[in-house]
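FW: tagging you since you asked about this chain on Friday. Here's the raw sequence from the shared folder, copied in full. Didn't touch anything.
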Amino acid sequence: MTDRSLAAMGIVALIFLGGFLGGIGGDAVGPREYPERPPTVDAETAGPYAAAYEEVYRHNRTVEEETETIREIVVGAGVVSVSERDDGYDIVVSVDYYWTFGADGPDRPIVIADGEPYEATSFVNETTTDRLGDTL
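HL: got it, structure written out here
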């Protein structure tokens, strides 16, 4: 056997194994795009925008941090408060989330991982979205 045919067999084996492990071509969840800032940022639009932004932030962080193949991520964020400043709005949102992974074969059940609920604070104005931090 030549080196080229050994390499080809190795690649085929990795693809085959990857299919079993869920690492290649599986139903894995990927990162999401952040929402667009509303055309007019005011006391009514800043809160829902910050909540949607935090949902995507938590989704993407879970994708980034989790080592298993994620099947589903569910994030819910609700506005706790909107405080007006001279140059924009401070928004506090409450976040709860969970994700599922596993089930690549009959001996691997689906596992549900609950994230710790937290509050996140963001600053939003016409040109900036700045995530200030969270209570995690």
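FW: Residues 123 and 129 are 6 Å apart (CA to CA).
HL: agreed, and The beta strands are 70-85, 88-105, 108-114, 118-124, 129-134.
FW: great, closing this out.
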